[in-house]
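User: What would this chain look like folded?
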Amino acid sequence: MKISASFLSSYSIEKDIQKLNDTDVDFIHVDVMDGKFVKRKTMPFRSMKNIYKFTSKRLDVHLMAIHPKKLIKKYAQLNTEYITIHVELDEDIDSLIDLIHNYGIKCGLSIKPDTPIDVLDPYLNKIDMVLFMSVEPGQGGQAFLPETFVRIKEFKRKMKSKKLNIVINVDGGINLNNCTKLRQADILVSGSCITNSDDFQKTITKLRGGKHE
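Assistant: Here's the prediction, encoded as structure tokens.
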């Protein structure tokens, strides 16, 4: 199980990033919001770019934007492992997937809690990851939606029938109480559960399913 640590602009970002860099967390999860796809808007790229001077961790970038093309080009400049766009976009999804791959970056598709997973079908042979939103995107601190467990099981069955191996990432409301039920996932995104804890490494280890020495 891999852990992608998220943060919001309301936190002490530089301090948290530096503390996360001293842990064995696998990725730094970057939520990019344009104020249109979701109501909230994050800080501009020029500010975000400077923050990543404080970490050597690979980035897991989640674009919540109605027109992500320019953002893809910007975040491709950073130490990025994944760039994820939303399957609900009114855009040419195939061309955006190709653009991300052309930068040598893995592509993910994110899906909202109320979107049927069948809408992913046309893209399953092209993508590297599916990011299941277990809350409504755009706001931290929401409670985990339990129907996510069923959606992940359904998607696992779909992958098995199609003989596909796509990374499953889950984002929203993940904590030490529900993480044990998410062992079918490959990556868990966690924000406040980590950054509000007294010991980042201990919390990350528990989320991953290990024991902290």
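The chain has one domain: 2-208. If you want, I can go into more detail on any region.
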